[in-house]
Amino acid sequence: MFTVASADINLWIAGLLWPLTRILALITAAPIFGNKAVPARIKVALGVGLAVIVAPAVPAWPAVDPMSYAGLLILMQEMLIGLAMGFSIRIIFAAVEMAGEVASLTMGLGFATFFDPNTQGRSSAISQFLSLVATMAFLAVNAHLVLLSALVESFSTLPVSSLPVYGGGFKQMADWGGKIFSVGVQLSLPIVAALLITNVALGILTRAAPQLNLFGIGFPITLGVGLLVVALSLPYLGMPIQNLLLDGVERARLMPRTWSQRQPVAKPTQPALAAPSLGP
């Protein structure tokens, strides 16, 4: 008679539940996969399919009841790892969108905002345009496939364990978030520089001819110059955006290696030796 113990059932559930949590967390946070236009059923089906494929190759997981307190902590830790890996790619897209926001404000397109279903907020027209360019570059270099490969590799680099992850990985994640501001300014720098020169020229022109209406001619000129610079600089944005995306995927690949340094267990302190007596 074939019998199955409850411990074996819990072990099978944990072997599928914990990898599935990391995979679904990455799918939720990563661009393209976590897009609002993708139905939730497709995301869950993709996560379950990847978990079924990955689970047999996952190293031995801890024999912990998934419904226990320790099992819930492992579940939260796996979710945190997946979110961090997806967030590392999301930072690159946020940097590109910030470049579009800076360019739009400099051009005078701050009023031309649209509802962005991904962020549940409003973004400018140039920001959405650059975001679409980054999305096409993300698919063109097969970064989505490399990201899934890094996810599968993370189960060997950072296996499922009941030990907490290394806390220094959070600081590195915060440092990586600084890319939003540095990359955003660098990508928008040609447009900002061209519009700065345009505004200086308009200031000199209005100083030489005060009868000109600055508000009447300034906006069309700055808008036209901004769109012209965007069109001229677009062919040169492919390589920087591609390098940024590959850098983000590499960061997602190296992040589990950083967190694989488990927190050291505190060693028991040895009792102090008693001072020798000097005799009666």
Automatic annotation (TrEMBL):
<keyword id="KW-1133">Transmembrane helix</keyword>
<dbReference type="GO" id="GO:0006605">
    <property type="term" value="P:protein targeting"/>
</dbReference>
<feature type="transmembrane region" description="Helical">
    <location>
        <begin position="70"/>
        <end position="93"/>
    </location>
</feature>
<protein>
    <recommendedName>
        <fullName>Flagellar biosynthetic protein FliR</fullName>
    </recommendedName>
</protein>
<dbReference type="Pfam" id="PF01311">
    <property type="entry name" value="Bac_export_1"/>
</dbReference>
<dbReference type="GO" id="GO:0009425">
    <property type="term" value="C:bacterial-type flagellum basal body"/>
</dbReference>
<feature type="transmembrane region" description="Helical">
    <location>
        <begin position="180"/>
        <end position="202"/>
    </location>
</feature>
<dbReference type="GO" id="GO:0044780">
    <property type="term" value="P:bacterial-type flagellum assembly"/>
</dbReference>
<comment type="similarity">
    <text>Belongs to the FliR/MopE/SpaR family.</text>
</comment>
<keyword id="KW-0282">Flagellum</keyword>
<feature type="transmembrane region" description="Helical">
    <location>
        <begin position="129"/>
        <end position="152"/>
    </location>
</feature>
<dbReference type="InterPro" id="IPR002010">
    <property type="entry name" value="T3SS_IM_R"/>
</dbReference>
<keyword id="KW-1003">Cell membrane</keyword>
<keyword id="KW-0969">Cilium</keyword>
<keyword id="KW-0975">Bacterial flagellum</keyword>
<feature type="transmembrane region" description="Helical">
    <location>
        <begin position="12"/>
        <end position="32"/>
    </location>
</feature>
<keyword id="KW-0472">Membrane</keyword>
<feature type="region of interest" description="Disordered">
    <location>
        <begin position="260"/>
        <end position="280"/>
    </location>
</feature>
<feature type="transmembrane region" description="Helical">
    <location>
        <begin position="44"/>
        <end position="64"/>
    </location>
</feature>
<dbReference type="GO" id="GO:0005886">
    <property type="term" value="C:plasma membrane"/>
</dbReference>
<dbReference type="InterPro" id="IPR006303">
    <property type="entry name" value="FliR"/>
</dbReference>
<feature type="transmembrane region" description="Helical">
    <location>
        <begin position="214"/>
        <end position="237"/>
    </location>
</feature>
<comment type="function">
    <text>Role in flagellar biosynthesis.</text>
</comment>
<keyword id="KW-0812">Transmembrane</keyword>
<keyword id="KW-0966">Cell projection</keyword>
